[in-house]
Write a structure and sequence with these properties.
The complex is a heterotrimer of chains A (324), B (319) and C (302).
Chain A (H helix, E strand, L loop, with lengths): L3 E11 L4 E12 L4 E5 L6 H8 L8 E10 L2 E2 L5 H7 L4 E4 L13 H12 L4 H14 L16 H13 L5 E5 L7 H18 L2 E6 L2 H7 L2 E6 L2 E7 H6 L4 H8 L39 H5 L5 E4 L2 E3 L2 H4 L6
Parallel strand pairs in A: 3-8, 3-9, 6-7, 7-8
Antiparallel strand pairs in A: 1-2, 1-4, 4-5, 9-10, 10-12, 11-12
Helix pairs in contact in A: 3-4, 3-5, 4-5, 5-6
Chain B lengths: L1 H18 L4 H6 L5 H11 L5 H15 L12 H36 L4 H14 L3 H15 L11 H31 L2 H8 L4 H17 L3 H18 L5 H10 L3 H29 L1 H15 L13
Chain C lengths: L1 H22 L2 H11 L1 H18 L1 H4 L31 H37 L1 H16 L2 H12 L3 H28 L2 H8 L4 H37 L11 H9 L7 H28 L6
Classes of the chains: A alpha/beta (324), B mainly alpha (319), C mainly alpha (302).
């Protein structure tokens, strides 16, 4: 059975002037032990999707309009708040984007890790503290520092603490929202290595949200490309990297500077993502797409399989009109 | 840091006193005096010297003898009078602040937690109305309502606990709106922080999150406005004590104002300013104790003074 | 063939972006936000009504504010005297209106003085930094150490009663607050890159201050000044109440309230009407100031 199955998730934010369609009919699957990369620009809806899984959408103004989120067969959107709370931190954990502000400044790091252990595992405070020190060691921080406060750590170390908190109860699924974006490149590599190690050790599945294709290449088994609240391309790592099809995906790959070639200018994708409160009809990418045609404007695009395990939301590609 | 400020306050207050109209020498002499008598009296009162000399002697007297000057009309030294009246005003002030804090902060927190609800809008509206009612207006309205019409509460003096109710309530009232508002703003900011999201993602109950994670972060910055509240309560005492006929610093200052007894007025201003300064100093010190970020700065300074070598773990701080 | 189409599209996109930026100027935005705020509009209405009442006072009442009439003392509200008469038989409605003139005039003068002086000190401290900043900041600290009302009392006691003196006394306390705000704003903007850019292109200090920094300080200054007028009115009433400020027979809400205190048990109009006017006016200005603050920086709202 799949560990996580999202079916047709739609999330809106009802603001005063208009409605923001943040996530539109998103479907994803994560198998046990698998890492799925969720890639897209800022504003594509990745964080909202992640928060939706954890049911941490702020309501109001947010609202999960429709869909199912099946975790080990159970629809998370239908269980009670108490049941959801018992899942958070224990079966599904999340780490947020900015490590600098993710820790409570007035509690020691040891306390913050012990808190989640004490909450979910049946153990005494002393045992929780003991295990929190073990977690610190596991993420490469000296356990004696458990009594120190977050401001006494650097950004990279803070992120390690955050990871320690997330993995303390050995969750089955870890949602990592751009865990390394706020860190220096060198620290980035260290943190990613550490995450991979721990993930393998504990056999945790991961939903890794990022806009960095390099990170995806290093850590993910499958990839979903997200644009304007929709999944536009979805497949295994190999398929997607060797045979990217959607014009947006092509644009993303094309904008990566190459080490071998000698170029003067970068190739950004022209234009901007559409305003999520005023999404256009038909294909959401057509304003920026070099291959767009009239049909793209009229019809809502759907995901179509172009090879086993690889789907694309583009009628021109799926229809065989374009061939990369 | 505090001392130069207090020094500056003394200079300003003294200068104001110096510039005050009226001639204390002739007032003291009364009717018909000669130039010699005038000069002698002036010398006796120390008023024949230059501004600087008078300032210096004022300062010296203040620091060594707590001498706050001589009243124009009363033989009793100002400092004696103030010392006698201080405890009452201090008690009133203390209770007033306590009430402001005990009412203002919880209401502000509820308002923030239940943002956009009827409770929030209601409390905010009430706070706005409260902020528009000056202390003296409220005191009079209370006197009319509770003392005269309903006859529930006594109006003069502080003999029984019941006597304290109206004075303390009217002292506290003006500050409550500000406290509520400040608390609400701070709490809203705190709730928006990332570490609250982290706490939620751990699966903690909302109450636990509010109490354990949000509350203390919210209270720490509020401590800094206690100084302002103290200032407000003490300045308001001039009016409150007057209306309820309480024998404190406020009524002393009021009588000084009415009779143009400038030394008394200035001394009162000086004393209250001093108290506010000291309270602010205490608040700063308290802040260092309750905020771990500040506490560790002082902690490392202390340990660094004792230990000569660099701690071995320090190198790992770099990553 | 493909290349030139792409280029054309790029230019169109840029122009679209520029249009979006130019369309709504800053002030139109602010106005739009302000108009959405119901309490702000209420505050504005209250303030406008007050101003109209006191401006058109001579038209609204035919009594002189100091016309005494012993047989008519302590009359309750009637059609002839909408608010009744006071202990000297003077029409209270008239005294309220003319008292409002005094209060507003003093409040506006006081706020203006403290805003101007505060801006001078604050921008000097913020822009030049260093020794200038230290000296000015220490001075401001000393000013702020003395509670505002007490400082006003002390200065009032020295200068004596009267409208101009009271305005001056109240303005001093407000200087420190204005200066602080301006200083903070100036320092925040100073570190902005576009100031460095202006300096790099050779603009002289004064020009930089005038052209780049001051416009950005207008917003917090407006908010502070609006709240300050409300506070000043409270201060004027308070000072008059304790015998400083404005003395009778000049009408002033606080001094009328003070006199009314003696008759509190038997004659309510002399306390209720001044109290109402004071509270309503302050309330209006507070609402207005709040709404202005929200309109000028919506981020602060939540």
């Amino acid at each position: 059975m799949n560990l996580l199955e999202i079916k047709g998730l739609t999330i809106h934010y009802a603001m005063r002037a208009n409605t923001v369609h943040a996530v539109n009919n998103v479907s994803l699957v994560i198998e046990p032990g698998q890492t799925l990369g969720l890639v897209g620009e800022t504003g594509a809806g990745k964080t909202t999707t992640a928060r939706g899984i954890m049911r941490l959408i702020q309501t109001p103004p947010g609202k999960i309009v429709s869909g199912e989120i099946l975790f080990e067969g159970v629809d998370l959107l239908k269980i009670s708040s108490a049941e959801m709370r018992s899942i958070r931190g224990k079966s599904i954990s999340m780490i947020f984007q900015d490590p600098m502000s993710a820790l409570n400044p007035i509690l020691t790091v040891g306390e913050q890790i012990a808190e989640v252990i004490h909450l979910h595992e049946k153990c005494s405070k002393r045992e929780a503290e003991e295990r929190s020190r073990e977690m610190l060691e596991m993420v490469g921080i000296r356990p004696e520092r458990a009594g120190e406060y977050p401001h006494q750590f650097s950004g990279g170390m803070k992120q390690r603490v955050v990871i320690a908190i997330a993995l303390a109860c050995s969750p089955k699924l870890l949602i990592a929202d751009e865990p390394t974006t706020a860190l220096d490149v060198t620290i980035q590599a260290q943190v990613l290595d550490m995450m991979r190690e721990l993930k393998d050790k504990l056999n945790t599945s991961m939903l890794l949200i990022t806009h960095d294709l390099g990170v995806v290449a290093e850590t993910c088994d499958a990839v979903a490309i997200m644009y304007a609240g929709e999944i536009v391309e979805y497949g295994s790592l190999e398929r997607l990297f060797h045979n990217p099809k959607h014009p947006y995906t092509l644009g993303l790959f094309g904008s990566i500077p190459s080490l071998d070639k000698d170029t003067d200018r970068l190739n950004p994708i022209r234009g901007l993502m559409p305003d999520p409160s005023a999404l256009p009809k038909g294909c959401k990418f057509r304003e920026r797409c070099d291959y767009a045609c009239d049909e793209c404007r009229k019809e809502e695009q759907s995901l179509r399989e172009i090879e086993p395990g690889h789907t694309v939301r583009c009628m021109r590609v799926a229809g065989g009109v374009l061939n990369g | 840091m505090v001392i130069p400020i207090m020094l500056g306050v003394v200079i300003i207050v003294f200068s104001l006193s110096f510039l005050a109209p009226g001639d204390p020498v002739s007032t003291a002499l009364g009717e018909g005096y000669t130039q010699e008598q005038y000069d002698a009296q002036a010398a006796y009162m120390g008023l024949d010297k230059s501004y600087i000399e008078q300032l210096v002697s004022y300062l010296v007297n203040l620091v060594t003898k707590f001498d706050l000057g001589k009243s124009y009309f009363s033989i009793i030294p100002i400092e004696t009078e103030l010392a006698a009246r201080f405890p009452v005003s201090a008690m009133l002030g203390l209770f007033g602040i306590a009430l402001t804090v005990l009412i203002g902060i919880p209401l502000g927190i509820f308002s923030a937690i239940k943002q956009y609800s009827v409770l929030d809008y209601g409390l905010t509206a009430i706070a706005m109305i409260m902020a528009a009612i000056p202390g003296f207006v409220l005191s009079i309205l209370c006197v009319v309502l509770f003392g005269v019409q309903l006859r529930w509460l006594p109006l003069v003096g502080l003999d029984t606990p019941k006597h304290w109710i109206l004075p303390v309530a009217t002292s506290a009232f003006p500050g409550i709106a500000g406290m509520m508002r400040m608390t609400r703003t701070t709490m809203l900011e705190v709730i928006r922080q990332d570490y609250i999201s982290t706490a939620r993602s751990k699966g903690l109950k909302e109450n636990v999150i509010i109490v354990k994670h949000a509350l203390k972060n919210c209270l720490i910055p509020l401590v800094t406005i206690i100084g302002g509240s103290v200032a407000m309560v003490l300045s308001g005492s001039i009016i409150v004590e007057n209306i309820f006929s309480i024998r404190g610093i406020g009524t002393y200052m009021y009588s000084g104002i009415s009779s143009s007894d400038y030394p008394v007025v200035m001394a009162g201003v000086l004393v209250i300013s001093f108290v506010v300064c000291i309270v602010n100093l205490l608040v700063d010190i308290l802040y260092a104790f309750i905020d771990p970020r500040i506490k560790t700065i002082y902690g490392t300074r202390m340990t660094n003074r004792k230990k000569p070598a660099v701690l071995p773990g320090a190198a790992s701080e770099v990553v | 063939m493909h290349g030139h189409l792409v280029k054309e599209r790029k230019e169109l996109d840029l122009r679209a972006l520029e249009n979006m930026a130019v369309k709504k100027t800053l002030w139109q935005d602010v106005l739009a936000r302000f108009l959405k705020n119901k309490s702000g509009i209420a505050g504005f209405v209250i303030v406008v009504i007050m101003i109209l009442l006191i401006l058109f006072a001579p038209l609204l009442t035919r009594f002189d504010y100091d016309a005494q009439s012993f047989p008519d003392r302590f009359l309750y509200p009637s059609s002839l005297h909408p608010f009744g008469t006071d202990n000297f038989g003077r029409d209270l409605f008239t005294r309220m209106l003319y008292g409002g003139r005094i209060s507003f005039m003093i409040a506006i003068i006081a706020t203006f003085i403290s805003a101007v002086i505060g801006t001078i000190f604050g921008s000097a401290a913020g822009y030049f930094g260093g020794v200038v900043d230290t000296i000015i900041s220490r001075f401001l600290d000393i000013m702020m150490a003395i509670p505002g009302l007490l400082l006003a009392i002390a200065i009032s006691a020295v200068l004596g009663p009267g409208p101009i003196n009271t305005a001056f006394a109240l303005s001093i306390g407000g200087i420190a607050m204005s200066a602080r705000i301006i200083r903070a704003t100036v320092m925040a903007i100073k570190t902005n890159e576009y100031i460095e850019a202006a300096k790099a292109t050779g603009s002289r200090n004064f020009r930089i201050i005038r052209k780049h920094i001051l416009p950005n300080t207008i917003a917090p200054l407006i908010v502070n000044s609006t709240m300050s007028i409300g506070g000043s009115i409270m201060g004027i009433a308070g000072l008059s109440f304790i015998g400083l400020g404005v003395k009778p027979p000049t009408p002033e809400w606080g001094s009328i309230l003070n006199v009314g205190r003696d008759y509190i048990r038997d004659f309510w109009p002399m306390t209720v009407f001044p109290a109402l006017f004071i509270m309503l006016t302050i309330f209006g200005f507070n609402l207005l100031g709040d709404a202005l603050r929200d309109a000028l920086d919506p981020r602060l709202k939540d």
